[in-house]
Design goal:
It is built from 22 helices and four strands. By secondary structure, the protein is mainly α. One of its GO terms (cellular component) is membrane.
Length: 700
């Protein structure tokens, strides 16, 4: 058994009975064990001393506090963490017996996975940072706070991906080796389910922790290398004539790396030193060794665990109760409860819900505060964005009361809360969907018909009030139909269901299907079609806008009578009027495109997260038998969890894709006290100016 845990090769002549001779087929010689132990000791000493020195130097040297060096320091911290776990893993590696207990089993091995995940994806972040510095040198470098946020996200994502491993790790002993304990990841005590879950988790971790990072880093460094080759040739061409015209290559994109390097090398004397400093980034290619080392370690670890599971195919662990064995095998394929979610996956779902609630509440409350206190964010579209944030807050406040039913399958909140909570979630989702439609209509008016009078504040408030009223009216049948039911098959379990007709099952099915189809149409299908059509027209119009300033620059004149057949309400005529000042036209186009990019991102996230569950719910309504298929319950549970993701993602989209929100978020997070003081000061100044103007008017 010791040799199996060490990943040694099995004897091909061993029989299926796994006799004692099988386990003793390979005994590692003592000199090799000593050699391995010395190598591990050297690795621990060098890793600790070297990485601690890197952290001290990076924190105390100003020149080493850029974004890239901060990521390098994060790499050193993750290496320190993984090396600190290694001494506790050595007894199992050399003796083949886990001696650290249940708690250390659940802590150590998943923590190593977390540290390795952070190491791998920090290398990806470093490659992305070097890619930005070399290929797009004029793009603003990330600030310290942004780099810290990236590092925090790396650790959070690593922890979330490792949660199943934290829940699944357990200490087991087997009848064939009564004196040995093994720290294994057991996702289910049903062998088939355990194999299925472990393979899914292994494939996922291999993809996000090895394959995708290697592909991403390879692509980024190939582009960096190609750019640096062009970069080194430019100073030699610039030295003879001491000039550089960007107009010599009219076909090159203004964002291309060649144009950027031409700009960088306008000073030929400093170009060589700049290129040499950037070429130092090629040293990061050595990071591939760490990734390859992890791939080999992961493969050997998974081979070991897989061998153990196959070896004890027919054995029952001694610490598994009979009830657990009966529950894992006694349910039939047609029983709707045939899927029992492992505790590790339940824990994973619970943490995801907790993260969604936290991010959604903090982010959307911040959006409301910023939108209400910033004058530039009080236009019609931003008021609708604030309404979107309010509806997200309302739905997220309902989520904690729904979690007990989601995890326990039992409604414990009573009749009144049943009639209040679930219909309220429908109201908030209806408002969210149709607020996105209202935002699309507002941008359609602003781009296609820019001279149509924009709606006033009172009109926007009326539109928002109508959205909430219509949502409430469409949800009224659900407020009346929700009730708590108990079935004879499970007298101790209560269900919060929508019952449209209590006595007649056929009528109940008919009414429920009519209501489901209606809500799917007005809450999912029609809004998506309308929004898609509006944004397609907006995109086509913006392409026409881009050509108008060029024509105006050549002729320096524009006659609106030169196109007598154009309708006075057409977008082309309006755009010609709007772009009579060519200098401001490009800026307006750029701002509009950035704003539309933010709105489209919010829309795409919402459609991708919301439509799958709504479609599955509609299919369930007309095919109830699908709910009895294996793992369909798990699919619906995870799709329902994805429905809540936009509530947390939307504020992140606002902060990343909109400069005004980005600046306001930074000020609110980094300096909240000074932010509120500056807002009050601006309000006082504006009131003072208005009062002075009124007094002057009265005096005149």
């Amino acid at each position: 058994m010791e040799n199996e845990l060490n990943g040694s090769a099995a004897n091909p002549n061993a029989t299926e009975s796994y006799s004692e001779s099988y386990f003793e087929a390979y005994l590692e010689p003592l000199p090799l064990k000593i050699f391995r132990f010395v190598i591990y000791a050297v690795i621990i000493v060098f890793a600790l001393v070297g990485n601690v020195a890197v952290c001290i130097i990076s924190s105390r040297t100003r020149r080493l506090q850029t974004s890239t060096y901060c990521l390098v320091m994060n790499l050193a911290i993750s290496d320190i963490g993984s090396v600190l776990c290694l001494p506790f893993l050595l007894p199992e590696l050399f003796v083949g017996n886990w001696l650290m207990g249940e708690a250390m089993c659940k802590l150590l091995k998943p923590s190593v996975v977390v540290f390795n995940f952070v190491t791998t994806n920090t290398l990806v972040a470093i490659a992305c940072d070097r890619f930005r510095a070399v290929v797009f040198p004029f793009v603003m470098r990330p600030s310290k706070s942004e780099t810290r946020l990236i590092i925090a996200i790396l650790w959070l994502v690593a922890f979330l991906f490792s949660l199943p491993s934290y829940g699944a790790m357990t200490v087991m002993d087997f009848p064939e080796s009564p004196g040995f304990y093994y720290c294994l990841d057991v996702f289910s005590y049903d062998l088939e389910k355990d194999t299925f879950y472990r393979r899914i988790y292994t494939i996922t971790m291999y993809a996000v922790n090895a394959l995708l990072p290697v592909l991403a880093i390879s692509g980024l460094y190939l582009k960096i290398t190609a750019t640096l080759k062009h970069f080194r040739l430019i100073p030699e061409a610039l030295r003879p004539n001491r000039s550089c015209s960007l107009n010599t290559s009219p076909n090159s994109s203004p964002r291309s790396s060649v144009v950027n390097t031409n700009k960088l090398n306008m000073n030929p004397a400093g170009a060589e030193s700049v290129s040499e400093s950037i070429l130092q980034s090629e040293g990061f290619i050595q990071a591939f060794e760490t990734i390859l080392r992890y791939i080999r370690w992961s493969a050997s670890l998974r081979r070991t665990v897989g061998t153990e599971v196959k070896m004890y195919d027919g054995a029952i662990p001694t610490n598994v109760s009979v009830a657990a064995q009966d529950n894992s095998t006694g349910l039939s394929e047609d029983d709707p409860t045939s899927y029992l979610e492992p505790i590790a996956l339940k824990l994973f779902r619970f943490v995801i819900y907790a993260v969604i609630i936290m991010f959604a509440l903090v982010g959307n409350v911040a959006v409301c505060i910023i939108s209400s206190r910033t004058r530039r964010l009080q236009t019609s579209t931003y008021c609708l964005v604030m309404n979107l944030a309010i509806s997200d807050i309302g739905s997220v406040l309902c989520l904690p009361f729904l979690l007990p039913e989601l995890f326990d399958g039992n409604w414990m909140m009573g009749e009144a809360m049943c009639k209040l909570l679930k219909p309220s979630v429908v109201v908030f989702n209806f408002v969210t969907t149709n607020t996105l439609v209202a935002i699309a209509c507002d941008r359609f008016r602003a781009v296609v018909f820019p001279f149509v009078t924009r709606p006033s504040k009172s009109e926007i408030r009326l539109i928002i009030a109508l959205l909430w009223l219509i949502a409430f009216l469409f949800s009224l049948p659900m407020y009346g139909a929700q009730t708590v039911k108990v079935f004879p098959e499970s007298p101790d379990i209560y269900y919060c269901l929508d019952v449209f007709s209590d006595g007649d099952t056929d009528k109940d099915t008919f009414y429920r299907r009519i209501y489901t189809i209606t809500m799917y149409a007005v809450q999912a299908l029609l809004p998506v079609l309308v929004i898609s059509a509006l944004y397609l027209k907006i995109t086509a119009t913006l392409k026409n806008i881009h050509l108008v300033p060029l024509a105006l620059r050549r002729s320096h004149s524009c006659s609106l009578n030169s196109t007598p057949n154009i309708s006075p309400h057409s977008s082309i005529l309006n755009l010609n009027k709007l772009n009579m000042n060519p200098a401001g036209a490009q800026r307006r186009q750029m701002l509009e495109k950035k704003f539309l990019r933010m709105l489209l991102t919010v829309l795409i996230v919402y459609v991708l997260c919301y439509l799958p569950f709504q479609t599955l719910f509609l299919v369930y309504e007309f095919n109830p038998g699908l709910g009895y298929l294996n793992y369909m319950q798990a699919l619906s549970e995870y799709l329902y969890m994805i429905v809540w993701l936009p509530n947390a993602i939307n504020p992140i989209c606002y902060g990343c894709l909109n400069e005004q929100y980005k600046r306001a978020f930074k000020a609110l997070i980094l300096r909240p006290r000074s932010y509120f003081q500056s807002v009050r000061l601006r309000r006082r100044l504006s009131k003072t100016v208005i009062t002075d103007v009124q007094l002057k008017d009265i005096a005149a």
